[in-house]
Amino acid sequence: MATSTNIQYLVATAKDELGATVSIKTASDRRQIETFLAGAAITAGDWVMFDTSATDAARVLTVIQATFAATGQPLTVGVALNAATVAGQTVDVVVSGYVENANVADAVTVGQALSISAVNGRGAAAAATAVAQFCGVALEDGSAANQADVWVIKQF
Prior knowledge:
By secondary structure, this protein is mainly beta. It has one domain (13-152). It contains no helices and eleven strands. The protein has strands at 13-15, 21-23, 32-38, 47-50, 62-65, 76-80, 90-103, 113-116, 123-125, 136-138, 147-152. It has a five-stranded mixed β-barrel. A hairpin with a 5-residue loop joins strand 1 (13-15) and strand 2 (21-23). The two termini are 12 Å apart. The mean pLDDT is 86.
């Protein structure tokens, strides 16, 4: 299902039901989310890619954890917002824009271009030899929990 990207909501705070000002972590609607089918178990925050083991058009409707490719993973779609415990469940994927707590290597530093690491579903510093487009940019240093806020570069 395609989403609309022509409306932007730029307010970073709002009022809660008690009238207090609260921060909105998804205030920027410069983010695009698409729904896919999981080809296998996926954890929220994982980088995902098209499942080329599927057949026909299902190859671009189905995603799995992104896998490492020495020259970059051109099949990378984005970052999963929710978990799928088994194949066939739906998973919402940020295909462009801001993601909080994406799965990254702990050595990632702010401003670093990202590609997929040797650990499935995890982003890492892009190698100088990567020829595929980078899949994202780290917006903060990676944590010991292998998480960081990132910007997903639109490829889908």
